[in-house]
Design goal:
single chain; 15 strands; about 220 residues; MORN3; repeat; cytoplasmic vesicle; about 60% strand; 15-stranded antiparallel beta sheet; MORN; mainly beta; MORN repeat-containing protein 3; Histone H3 K4-specific methyltransferase SET7/9 N-terminal domain
């Protein structure tokens, strides 16, 4: 009885090419169509694990953790200086779903910086902000602005301690005029003191006390 031999089935070449094109595990630099490049780990064709992304249009660099194609975990984000072309760190800290989330530090133009908590890419929770004029705010934040309880210390050491809303003094608070040796304690609304009392506070040690002390009632 004659033996019939059937030709061995061969898979199309595109199956082999497609298999090789699947990205999983550690890979060398992979270039996107728009010129962006990524070097690091993959899972099911998504950036996942440790990796570094470079955006061609802005020159920005992110190096850190990824989860299913998005920045998630701990990482740092830097941009090149427009003049010197040297990279300057913009943010170092925690990310979630491609946004700043958790504790991190951001460095702003002009030397300002924020150290504290983030949520959804906005300053939210507890944090400390160093302003360009030398002022320092330390306290609670909400939706990227001081909100809740906090203290603002001015360059001359005068300070406000109390409530904040939408980035302005709001609610019960105390303003220490340490340069004059006075204390104002009262209620604030949208940065304006509405009512309260003003008393002498450390007047003898103040560098520029008022000419006359406040009489006691």
């Amino acid at each position: 009885m004659p033996i019939v031999k059937y030709p061995r089935a061969t898979e199309p070449l595109w199956h082999e090419w497609d298999g090789k094109a699947q990205k999983c595990g550690l890979r060398h630099t992979v270039y996107a169509v728009n010129g962006d490049q990524y070097t690091g780990e993959w899972l099911d064709n998504l950036k996942h694990g440790k990796g570094t992304q470079v955006w061609k249009r802005t020159g920005a660099i992110y190096s850190g953790d990824w989860k299913f194609g998005k920045r998630d975990g701990y990482g740092s984000y830097s941009i090149p200086d427009p003049v010197t072309k040297e990279y300057k760190k913009v943010y170092t800290g925690w990310w979630k779903n491609d946004r700043k989330c958790g504790y991190g530090a951001t460095f702003y133009h002009g030397g300002e910086r924020y150290e504290g908590e983030w949520s959804g890419g906005l300053r939210s929770g507890w944090g400390r902000m160093y302003y360009r004029d030398g002022s320092i705010y330390e306290g609670q934040w909400l939706a990227d602005q001081p909100g809740g309880q906090g203290m603002l210390r001015l360059p001359n050491e005068n300070r406000y301690e109390g409530g904040w809303k939408d980035g302005k003094k709001h609610g019960p608070g105390k303003f220490f005029y340490l340069d004059k040796g006075q204390l104002f304690e009262g209620i604030w609304a949208a940065d304006i003191p509405k009512c309260g009392i003003l008393i002498d506070f450390g007047r003898d040690e103040a560098p520029a006390p008022t000419q006359y002390p406040i009489p006691k009632v």
